[in-house]
Amino acid sequence: GGGAVSPMRRYSTLFHPRSAEVGLVDDRPTALTLTLGEDFEVELWPGAEDHQEQEAWLEAVEKVLGQARKLMGTHRPRPTEGTEAQS
Fold first, then answer.
1. 14-69 pLDDT, tens per residue?
2. Which is nearest to 26 in space by CA: 50, 40, 46, 48?
């Protein structure tokens, strides 16, 4: 009998993420692996006993990504020293 599935956690923070490091590996039916940054992955197991919870996690991630995108849009990068136009 299967007990509750708990996520494996490795505590780390991804600083200054780069879009080139984002990817998806489709190893269905076994797994889907989302790469969010160097050494920063999330593995999903389609059809596992916690499939619905994994789908709920994906929905929650989509929601917060949308919120983060909106919040990032309210801020524009400030020129750093040495990049201002010089005359």
1. 888 899 999 999 999 999 999 999 888 999 999 999 999 999 999 999 999 999 99
2. 46
**What average pLDDT does the segment 1-18 reach?**
72
- 47 touches 29 (CB < 8 A): yes
Please state the φ and ψ torsions of residue 71, each to the nearest 5 degrees: -65, -40
- Which amino acid, one-letter code, is at 9? R
Go through the chain and tell me how many residues it has.
87
Radius of gyration of the chain (CA): 18
Write the CB contacts of 75 (distance below 8 Å, at least 6 apart in sequence): none
| Strand 31-37 with 23-27, pairing | antiparallel
Could you tell me the two tokens for 71? 């919040």
CA–CA separation, 29 vs 86, rounded Å?
57
